Amino acid sequence: MSEADRRITDDLLRPLLSTSARFWVLVVFLGAIVATGLGTWVYQIYHGFGMTGIRWPIFWAFYVTNFVFWIGISHAGTLISAILRLVNARWRRPVTRCAEAITVFALMIGAMFPIIHLGRPWLFFWLVPYPNQRGIWPNFRSPLVWDFFAITAYLTGSVLFLFLPMIPDLALVRDRTTGWRHRCYGVFALGWRGTTTQWNRLEAAMEIMAIAILPVAVSVHTIVSFDFSMAPVPMWHSTIFGPYFVAGAIFSGIAALIIAMAFLRTFLHLEEYLHPVHFQNLGKLLLMMSLLWAYFVFAERLTVWYGNEPSEMAVFRVTQRGAFAPLYWTMVVCNFVIPFPILALKKTRTIAGCVVASACVLVGMWLERFLIIVPSLGHKYLPYSWGVYRPRPVEIIITISTFAAMSLLYVLFAKLVPIISVWELKVGSHPAHRPQTVEERDSEQALFVARTES
Amino acid sequence: MAHRWGMAVDLDRCTGCEACVTACRAENNIPTVGAAQAATGRAINWIRVERYWEGEFPDARLTFRPVLCQQCDAAPCEPVCPTYASHHTEEGLNAQVYNRCIGTRYCANACPYNVRFFNFFNPQWDKPLQLQLNPDVSVREVGVMEKCTFCVQRISAAETQARADGKPIKDGDLKTACAQSCPATALVFGDLDDPDSAVSRLSRSPRGSQLLGDLGTKPKITYLARQS
Amino acid sequence: MSAAYALFSDPESAQAAVDRLRAAGVADREITVISSEPFEAHEFGSRDKATWMFRIAGAGGAVGLAFAYWLTRMTEQAWPLPTGGMPIVATWPNLIIMFELTMLFAVLSTVGTLLVTARIPRRRPALYDPAVSDGRILVGLENPTMPLDALERAFAARPGQVKTLP
After folding, report:
1. Is residue C110, in this structure, part of any structural domain at all?
2. Cβ contact (<8 Å) for C75 and A140?
3. Least crowded by CB within 10 Å, which of A97, A123, A234, C147?
């Protein structure tokens, strides 16, 4: 077609078709960390859950923190892809697949943690409602069973939401490659041709998926928050948890997306497609979420402080002034104090500024999850049973390996599939013509016939 | 003949001797976790005696409160278990089914009394201590939650015997290990549905109150306040 | 021949070709237009837009809702275990399960409808040319009844520009 279109295709397919040595070094490095994490998990299962730092009465710590953190990160794709798709925001086009990929991989990693944190993980499948000779079904009153259903629905929806618009691009790669690549991509392209019927059905399906995936995403993190708010634990049993967690999820998700996009832009040379304005727009969203996060934290803390209920105040004091104060104030600095000026001033809302702010937000949001879980469990109603938690090496190694796993999955994805949706970008680069009238078509036809006959 | 098992704990009589703790360990095959693990907070005590100081030496006062599973009628640990390992029986007990437990530990977080315990490792008894194990009680494997059952093995045995004999269980015949071993008779176990039982009378005492009763857990243990 | 088609370099000429085919008496559903991106603004891209997909998604959601209602109710009553003073059939938590399964079934029925109506994965060989990936728009007929020279006139193509498949 036009020269611009050809350039788009070449640029976006280049990472698939040519591989540098740097890629292999990165894959081996990340793979080694992931393998270490997996080995550590096997070690934990073999030697017993006591290898972790979990103890009476703090029975949830790093693993549940990671669970909530990664499920939170998975809200990136939904917000960008689904919401911006529904409001027809033009600038979303280069960003949607990056975001949707984050969602799918973060969900997969997050969904591992309910299994990793089990005392008897080999029995995790008992949460699935299937007829069995024990005659027992899962307890639908348990928020953990709600987690299972919500994450299943969200993971299925996200994978499909990622895969469906990928089909035309897989067909593109199929046509541009030969040999084993051609065959593999041919299988995954499902024989896509691009007839008008297929395009219309695909667009209809994407619209339905975008509408459907939004309430599911909101419900998933709300249900994750219900893991805490359904228990009578001081500062857990709060009605604010649903919206608070969803806002926090979107907050951390945008931060993860900004960082992923910045890396892609640099290492895959996508400067033509991921412009500073994309980062500025996402930076504005991040700023808004930072303010929203601060609002929720203030509302919750003010209510607790004003209510002055003894068991809640014990947890409040230990986070604001006690043993957890360094972590608490680091969280506030990382989530609000640093990002706010960087993102609010246009001069600092550059790509580098957004990345710095996002990195701080990721640290702050991880700490936020930790600070919701551990101080409350360590300071419940009976002071005799208060306790102190210290993470052990297995938990730290597994946590680090999930970051490596996320990076590895993402790097492999960017190698196998165009990370920017080629066909959506092309659609966006042709401004939509208004529909032609019959007269215009006839006169154009006459012109065309004349042109070809000459 | 349905029962509703409950307990009354007289804080005036409790001396903090912890005979109940020892008896419970012996009766219910509770593992000792070793000094290192206990120091990091992994010790399992189905019943524990909480000790509080009031005032300063030499006018310090000690209060003891035995805390065990309150067998709450509105137990927060029950709805949160994904596999029904924690559920309510018809006799008002909070049952812990070890075979169904997959170790999510949600029940332990939800319990406001912190009376639920987790097996961090497979239990071990150095020889010849394994000869002391109670054959009526299972040994729990790693990854499983456990807690006070009101000596359900004794309850079942007594009920079976009563059915066989055709005679009801007499109040005072059936005792949990802790109630049986208390030298001060501070722990009284019995049937709350029997208005004449000792535990029913003590529960109606004006000294009686419930631990964290305002949380709405409806515990079935009544604590009788110290008089002095 | 099993198919005849021409490749066009821009949507306007493709539209013109489609119109000429229609003028030559070819039925709309026999004309195949294949492109590497959707051209919704043009008339040829917006034909065959009506779809039952939204209604099928809604129906799928309704099936999911009914299934979840039955699943939660049936299992809770099959072995009624009281927990926490809550009722045996716990409505509030069941609503959550019902919501999730409604959405899941709606999503799955949408994707199923897509696969069926878009006829993917493709089993039988069908009209296609990899030049489409370069940005060409393919306008063609499968099993055409017109002779080749009439097709060439309809496509307003130079000799040899109309390709045929045996």
Report:
1. yes
2. yes
3. C147
Considering only CB atoms, which chain B residues are within 8 Å of C91? none
pLDDT (mean) for A57-61: 96
Here the CATH number for the domain that contains residue A298 is: 1.20.1630.10
* Residue A187 Cα distances to A166, A174, A183, B23, C121, angstroms: 13, 9, 6, 67, 8
Q: Is the pTM of this model over 0.90?
A: yes
Residue A342 in any domain: the answer is yes
CA-based nearest residue in chain A for residue B101: A120
Is A441 a residue whose pLDDT tops 60? no
CB contact under 8 A, A198 and C120: yes
Question: C83 to chain B: which residues are within 8 Å by CB?
Answer: 75, 78-79, 81, 84, 86-88
Closest Cβ opposite residue B105 in set A47, A50, A60: A60
The residue of chain C nearest to residue A160, with distances taken between CA atoms, is: C111
| A56–B117 C-beta distance less than 8 A | yes
pLDDT value at A207 more than 80: yes
Tell me the C-alpha distance between A309 and A328, whole Å.
21
One digit per residue, the tens of pLDDT, for chain C of length 166 reads 678 888 888 888 888 888 888 888 888 888 889 999 898 888 888 888 888 999 999 999 999 999 999 999 999 999 899 998 899 999 999 999 999 999 999 999 999 999 999 988 888 888 888 888 888 889 988 887 777 777 777 777 665 567 777 7
Residue C145 DSSP symbol: -
Judge if C32 and C62 occupy the same domain.
Answer: no
Contact B79 A141 (CB under 8 A): yes
How many domains does chain C divide into?
A: 2
> From B53, which residue of chain A is nearest by alpha-carbon distance?
A384
Cβ-Cβ contacts under 8 Å, B41 against chain A: 55-57, 387-388
Distances (CA, A) of A84 to A162, A214, A282, C40: 15, 11, 12, 19
Neighbours of chain C (3+ CB pairs under 8 A): A, B
Residue A437 has pLDDT above 90, yes or no: no
> By residue range, what is the domain housing residue C68?
53-117
Establish whether this prediction's ipTM goes over 0.90: yes
Range B154-181 average pLDDT: 95
Of the listed ranges A223-227, B194-198, C155-159, the one predicted with least confidence: C155-159
Is residue A269 in a domain?
Answer: yes
CA distance A216 to A213: 5
